[in-house]
What does this fold into?
Amino acid sequence: MTCLRTLAAIVGCALFPALLFSPPSFADDASVHEPGVWQKHQYSFAYMGFTSTYSCDGLADKLKLLLLAAGARRDVKSQAGACASGFGRPDKFARADLTFYTLAPGSDGAAAAGDKPVDGTWRAVSFADRSPRDLHTGDCELVEQFRNSVLPMFTTRNIDNHTTCVPHQESGSNISLRFEAFAAPPAAAHAAKAAHGGT
It folds into this structure.
């Protein structure tokens, strides 16, 4: 018995530093719900990058992917902006017009707007090569710009960013952005989309 206690003490001491210095957890906390308020955002996104060139409709599709992955309501509208090039043709000055809703903790805003508060929870989000599936290393500068100009419109915490983009080349670039976003649980998000006329 004494040997077992000594072994447990040794293992406990070995694990103690790891417990002290472990990085923040990004596990979904889906079991804990709190009321949230939908907030509307409209934004004209003008892409500025050196490595990849997007068509305006391609940029709109990629931004919709990032918005939904970050926790925006399912009725995101991401449309090609005013571009010189035609549909599907790369444009150095690609633009997209965004209309989307994010969830913020609290219920006062909902009461003022006449809407009912909705359930919200903290959800882990990770942007990396092929996470989401259609995101690639060539999108590195787009992720950087999204992080700087669009992500602040979300309610987030524990942001862990190690994204590094090398201009004019994909080699050496790395997408690594993790955070927790306050968002509706999947079932509630789909219900909200239907209630607000989403398709």
Notes: The beta strands are 34-46, 77-80, 95-105, 118-128, 156-161, 176-183.
